[in-house]
Each structure stands twice: as structure tokens, then as C-alpha cells.
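Session log. Operator J.P. requested a structure for one protein chain; no other inputs attached. Running the standard single-chain path with C-alpha cell output.
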Amino acid sequence: MNAVLGNSTLKISDLQQGMLYHSLSNELKGVYIVQKLLSIGQVIELGHWQGAWDEVLSRHLALRSSFDGSTANLIQQSFHPTAKLSIAYQDWSDKAAEQAAQDYQDFLIK
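Structure written below.
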């Protein structure tokens, strides 16, 4: 990891090139993307939730990386000293069950 910190940009590996190719192809679009939608049945302190995720980001370099393909035939991975996760919070506790179910389905489609 120290070698990576000394150079904040690297050429992507052959494995990463293959994953990028497949994730951008029409037949396998999104195959490497995993998303989670959580329903938490209790009140949480949003500041603590955000702080916990900030700590996770600070500990894992891979979560603070991005890819740049602006140079022809050269895709590079850049590593950033910090990153901020945007968390969307929606409180549906006052909605009727039927309305919440419909809103949930609408949310998934977006």
C-alpha cells in the first residue's frame, strides 16, 4: 500500500480492464455493481452513521479510487487522500403501508 501512496495514479491491471470492458458492454451492463437498500426499523443518529462510513472510507484505499479514460487507449486508476459518501435519508414512518410500498417500488425504478 505504501508504494501506491507514493504514486497516486497507476495504469489499470489486465483484470481491471476486463471487468471494465464487461461492465460497459450491453450484454453484461452493471454486472459488477452491487447496491444495497436498507430499511432500519429504529431511529438512528445520522451524524454517527455518516461518521462510521467516513471511517470506513479512510481505512480502505480502494474506496477512494477513481478511473480516468480521457487519454486514448490508457485507462488509469487514481487514488485520493479523502472521499465523502453521500447518504440519502428518507423517513417514510408517517406513510400508510400501501403508499410506502408504492413509493418503494417507484424508488427502485429510479
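Operator note: Helices lie at 2-6, 14-24, 46-59, 97-109.
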